[in-house]
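FORM 7B - TANDEM STRUCTURE REPORT

SECTION 1: FIRST PROTEIN
SEQUENCE AND TOKENS:
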Amino acid sequence: MSGQWEDRPERWPVVTSDPIFDGAVISVRTDVVKSSVDGSTFTRDVVVHPGAVAIVAIDDDERVLVVSQYRHPVGHRLIELPAGLRDVPGEPPLDAAHRELYEEGHVRAADWRVLADVFSSPGMTDEAIRVFLARGISAVPEDERFDGEHEEADMPVSWVPLAELVRAVLDGKVQNAVSCLGVLAAWSARHDGGFDALRAPDAPWPAGASPRHA
């Protein structure tokens, strides 16, 4: 029965595809798409994104590592999970997660699982995000820590009980989409089979493949 509720690949014909913008992180193209239902055509603007990873790092006391980061586009300082772009060509998702947890959280983890895979906003972008669960946490020594810049130069780290974060999400106090997903997925996994029942850290992820990571 579970197979009924499963995303599947499907690609409608593209009549034309015109590049509009090419930036440091994203690019934008305009596609004219032909419907596989009735043959009609329509236009869609697509934000091309390298993808990202996020990490729910949880310690032995069931506290989750979060950062407080200024986000210019929304004009808020948000409570977020450590996360980052898959902007290193050829880097596996798990390696990217190790890197981001080290850089943003100043910790390393010995045990990894896949918590969830998500398209961030499939109506406008191809961004695919893999959310990992990380345990077996150890601190990075002060003299080995990564020095952030720009927004990441002022990004305090906190350890918050998982149950408290769940309530913050449900109360609308935590609004970062991937952080909400990760927190609620971790809570669900904790109470439905346990963390050890989650997928292996190198589980297949077809949606996470792109020419940039080939």
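SECTION 2: SECOND PROTEIN
SEQUENCE AND TOKENS:
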Amino acid sequence: MTDHPQDALVAELRNRVATGEVLRGDRLLPEREMAQRLGVSRGRLRQALDQLETEGALFRRRGQGTFVQPPPARDAARFKSLAQRVSPQEVMEVRLVVEPALAGLAAQNADAAMRELFAQATQATLEARDQQSYDAADDVFHYKIAQMAQNPLFLTVYESIRSVRAQAGWANRRAETYSPEVTEVLGQQHQILAAAILRRDSAAATQAMQAHLRCVAETLSQGGLP
């Protein structure tokens, strides 16, 4: 095995993830294959993966693998049929019930490390330069809130909603309806919401999420999509 200083290994792995060299679809290659490509032991590789996960660059789930975006619901396949039957408005109705509660819990329950990663995720939504990068950053932003609530049942509910949105036939039309002006407004709302969560103001976080989703719903009613 090649002697890789751990920091150099983390940097190399981060670069190979960014270029797609160690990806298969939306997840990383199996650990054994990655370790062989990098010339390191699986133990060293796991340490590097642990660090990237802590940084928020990766999402790991036992039994499913390591993902570069939030992972799909565990039984995502069974949501495919449902996704073809629900409308954007119906999805928004559920989001308006679930996500404000998640935001309130996130403000209460997130630890310091979670809040630091969430601040980075918030900044990423502001730095997005195109619709694709904004959508990816927005996905991570909302997923981090669900994680910070630290309620496994609530997270499962959120992942189910997210899976339905991703598989719906109208999901890929959002870019046509989100103008730069709308994206800018939503980014400002993200900042307000994030500030409430980071200062542990549960009531303000709940209200900010409600306002944010109502804006999304209004965009939806004018032809936009959640």
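SECTION 3: OBSERVATIONS ON SECOND PROTEIN
The beta strands are 23-24, 27-28, 59-61, 65-67.
Residues 76-221 form a domain with the Four Helix Bundle (Hemerythrin (Met), subunit A) fold (CATH 1.20.120.530).

SECTION 4: SIGNATURE
Preparer initials: ____
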